Amino acid sequence: MKTLLETIVSPLIDYPEELVVDVKEEPDKTVYHVTVHQEDVGKVIGKNGRIANSIRTVVYAANKDNSKKVYVDIM
After folding, report:
1. 38: which DSSP letter?
2. 14 and 39 in contact (C-beta within 8 Å)?
3. 10, 19 in Cβ contact below 8 A?
4. Per-residue pLDDT tens for 1-59?
5. Coil, strand, or helix at residue 39?
6. CATH fold group of domain 2-74
7. Which of the chain's termini has less CB crowding within 10 Å, N or C?
């Protein structure tokens, strides 16, 4: 899933070398923290959060472990 997020976000940003995806596993959920350069945050979030919601939709659909919820935070 981390690779999927990197693949989706990298083409959207100007500073792909500063892309960091951290994974926090908990018993009932998995949280992915996507951190990008300050200038790229708006590009990843998009107008009214449309791009961020699309990224979340793809990640939720790719979730193989349906017993755990998946969250994507963009910073």
Report:
1. G
2. yes
3. yes
4. 999 999 999 999 999 999 999 999 999 999 999 999 999 999 999 999 999 999 999 99
5. helix
6. GMP Synthetase; Chain A, domain 3 (3.30.300)
7. C
